[in-house]
Structure prediction request, 228 residues.
Amino acid sequence: MSERPVHEHIRALSGELVQLSDKVLGNFYEALQVARLQDSQAARKIRLVDDEINLAEVRLEEQCLSFLALQQPVARDLRTIVTILKINDDLERIGDLAVHIIERMPELGPEVMDRYEFEKMGRVAGDMVKNSIKAFVDRDQHLADQVCKSDEKVDTIHRLVFRKVAEAMKAEGSNTDQLLAVLSVSRYIERMADHATRISLEVIYLVTGEIVRHSEDSFEKLIQSLKD
Prediction:
């Protein structure tokens, strides 16, 4: 690692994190389109991009660990590197969700994707991720709070999808495999929103030094306070 100032190292690592988030979001949106269009060739590209995401995640983690070992940062700088490491992990997990979606592609298609408005749901979750990363870059606690509030929007859509599927399964001759795929995709998007919330909680930790993610009670109190 070069001898440039600590703040320049941190800026560079933050920049790589932003680039990774852009690639993750792009691949996720593309996966929804691929599942809708049943494009097998494009599905292979989703997997290739996910491989790139995995490599980038490992590389960024290695750079952060090297920074910790060589620079031994303290206080705010230490919190920033720890936050980057945790966000990096969440982004990699979001990247995996794109692959999970195309794995369910055979049971989906335009009619199914449109009926359950998965692209709309995906945009809401995607905006949460985008805003959580912006909150990190800007050290914006208010924006991080707003992302946490938005999680309920995705949860509401997910519950609606679940109810629709439950009703459809009661119908004679229902396509069970297709309906299970619908539930899976809805759950993948809901998980994406959960990861965005986790990233926002890490931003709150970065700004305030308060850790809330390990305590269910404190987490619920935080979410409730944001809704009040």
In short: The mean pLDDT is 90. Residues 176-208 form the longest helix (33 residues).
